[in-house]
Please model this.
Amino acid sequence: MSSPPPSHVGEASTSRQRSRNGNNGNGNNGNGSGSSRSRRQRRRRPQTPTPSPQVVVITSQEASTSTYYNLNGGVWPEPFVESLALQLALDTSLSHGRLAVAPTLAILFQVCTTWRAVSRSELLWQNLVRIVWNSTDLHLPTWREEFIYLHSTSRNFRVSRYSYYVLRPSDHLLAAAPGGDDGGAADQLPLLCLRLVLAGDHLAVGFSDGSVRIFHLPSRLHLQTIHPLLRDHLGLFSRAVSGIVLQPLADRVVFASLDGDIHVASPLGGPTSARRAYLGDVVNDGALVDFTGGGRFWVGLYAGVPGRAFRVWDADSEELLFMGGSLTDPESVMGWHMLTEIRPTEFVGRIRVASQGLAVGVTSLRALVLDLEQHVEVIGEETSRRGIIVGSVDANDDAFVMVDTRGTASVRQLRTLEEMSRFSVSHRGGGGAPSVPLRGMLGCINNMYVMMCAGGTIRVWDAAQGEYLYSLREWVEEATALAADDRHIVATSSDSTIHMWDYGA
Model:
């Protein structure tokens, strides 16, 4: 590749041309005598040839790791161009949203062919996926394809472009509970879907009989039904599933029941029984009303015994790390009632765990944030004067959403509790249309959007701006659970029907 010619070369050529035309450089046309012109020509030194521009050869290997030139002839190192692209992507994402990043980068890479070559860097696209889409997982052949897929899927989410499917557990052959005696009267109770967890290409559904069913989302096939180990129980619903932790590859599923038992199973390893990792003690600990996990931790939220609201386990060693807290002390009686009477949309409390080692716990009266790293401690707390609809609470890795009893939703930063957006969910269409019932409202949040289900309708908002986007066309009769990731929304109804909306590109 030849470097651009130095700027003085063009100036020397112009000066010589003026001399040939008789211009003295001051605007005079040189009308002097011929002898004077002849003497000047004789006194002029022999013209020194202008050196040709130096040719710089860069191999194809060096071209990807060495230097590039800007339009003015200066040298722009590749790391500088990549850093510029990353900073531009971050600034654009914060100021105009993630969907604005791709068009901005397209303009940047059109500056020149050498800048366009930077766009072929896999390391650049890997960093862009991490910075813009908060993902470190590669599902496609290249990071560039991964970025395009995430952008397209998020765009589909915003403009309501999806495919709708229905799954019914009765459509699949369900494994019988092991151990012979299935619990007597409990088997005659209606089967209710109580918990939903999405992880990668898999969906885990927890039921009131204590079972967990695993589905493969691309094929919508039922893979396996997992039952807990049976033992004497206190209350008809003591073995109802209260929480699930599902790893992205579905090689391990952890699920808890109201009586405090925690089971671990490998759903893809064949028809094996679940292993009990923790034996609950409902009399001394209370009911395990919610259970979740993420990264290094499992966290359980209990109600029924004062001073024992939280338990934290190491997810790898299954060792109990912490026990304590008073968040659910005012809800002790309701915690006991859950063992004998299931109301799917009435929750004692919610607990959610983020990958950065934070957890948010919410009841109808308070919301608090726990730092799980090192020592479990409360780093943020807020009391609600209006009351919180517990079923509306959900969190992603950076923020959580909750709705008060007047229908005002608030999206807040996890670590600081700073409010990011606020909007009303109590009106149809998000405006001044007739109000919707708040009783039984269910909510969830993914990386960009908030979903709320009330009165059988699921509506979608932009999480960062609080802008109402649309309502899903399909009706959910008496919703019992709601979950979403960046590609899917899943809801269950009282007849155990599983509704799924797929926004995949």
In short: The longest helix spans residues 78-96. The first strand starts at residue 67 and ends at 69. Residues 1-75, 173-184 have pLDDT under 50 and may be disordered.
